[in-house]
Amino acid sequence: MSLRYAILGYLSSGPGTGYDLARQLDTGLGWFWTARHSQIYPELKKLTEGGLIRRHSAVAGENFDKFEYSITEAGLAELREWAGQAPSYPPNRDSERLQLIFSDEQPSSLRLHLEAHLEHFRQRRDRLRETLSSMQQGTHPRVQKRIDEGPPSRADLTLKLRELAYSGDIARAELEVAWAQSALDWLDEYEQDNVERLAGRQPG
Amino acid sequence: MSLRYAILGYLSSGPGTGYDLARQLDTGLGWFWTARHSQIYPELKKLTEGGLIRRHSAVAGENFDKFEYSITEAGLAELREWAGQAPSYPPNRDSERLQLIFSDEQPSSLRLHLEAHLEHFRQRRDRLRETLSSMQQGTHPRVQKRIDEGPPSRADLTLKLRELAYSGDIARAELEVAWAQSALDWLDEYEQDNVERLAGRQPG
DNA sequence: TTGTCCATGTAAACAGTTACATGATTGA
DNA sequence: TCAATCATGTAACTGTTTACATGGACAA
């Protein structure tokens, strides 16, 4: 249900094509929503039909047009209305945790599990840091465009809220890294104990 | 795709009805997966057809039978195989963050947003603490059943992995609480500054 | 007898992923 | 001219939610 607002939000910083959106949302890097182009193009159509965005042709090559979309006043109003509502939280679904608690018959797979977790969130943390850093240095094109071309009264808040959001996500990733590290420390001890127990049983 | 494993995992601690599963998964409380009964009953049928669980009648009232499901050897093998794989992480989708970064034109809604966030994760933290606590005290029926009736070699690990999982989720909730609190502190200052700025402009 | 919980299903709609499909532009 | 990237769509499938539907058990 948030895809439409992710699109409206993106376009609220300036016009863009479906392809632009797909690049932003496909990877999900530096962004808070993900979607494939196969979901984006139909949604752009719906938003256009609803009058929340407008579609116009733009030159892509010599005899080839692309379509740019711009947000309308109605779209801006709907985005603001949505942003001002209290957040709602989706039901928790965490397959990593499920796998973890049902590994109690195969502790041998725990190291793989925890190391993959560690690596995943290290990378996420690093990419989030890079993105935040580029925003703070003014080299993030889209955010800088929003700051430069939006109403001056908004500029400070634009950056501050991104900092809040990204530093929060960075802290989340750091927490996962620390969690996995302490779990791996425990696992070292656990496996050491098991080795000693087996050695004690069969000395020599 | 994890629903089948959530079900297999639940049944790996002992037999249960579709209704039992629905109660566990409907609220998602103290659990890592959520589903409605409308999704559970068809999935139980599929799993039965695949030979991963078995269905048998059990007495519910005088002239009324309910259906109990038990995991089969094939089901246990599939559960173990899945649990041993490296975790994979779904693409990030976070409507709360989207709402936050697009509130830069309506700072007036930020307090509502942050207070709702704070309250949501305070409650989640408290419920997770209660669940963990009941497991550690041996009063969590389902987990205690798994510990008591499973192979003794598994018992320590069953509890330890639940502790890892739940304490990790508790730490996540605590992080969100701390994040929201520091954001609210910033907001207090921000609004104070604005009041002073307005007062400075129109003194008296 | 009335309301709450126990108990089990199906149907329609919506959201998201994967696969299919096509063609232009640009730089090496 | 070849590969990578730009650019735009549709179709089929899977997963999830909401709504529809039914009926027994049990306690106030």
Automatic annotation (TrEMBL), chains A, B:
Signal peptide coordinates: none
Domain Transcription regulator PadR N-terminal: residue ranges: 7-81
PANTHER family listed in its UniProt record: TRANSCRIPTION REGULATOR, PADR-LIKE FAMILY (PTHR43252:SF2), TRANSCRIPTIONAL REGULATOR YQJI (PTHR43252)
Protein name in the entry: PadR family transcriptional regulator
Organism of derivation: Amycolatopsis mongoliensis
Lineage: Bacteria, Bacillati, Actinomycetota, Actinomycetes, Pseudonocardiales
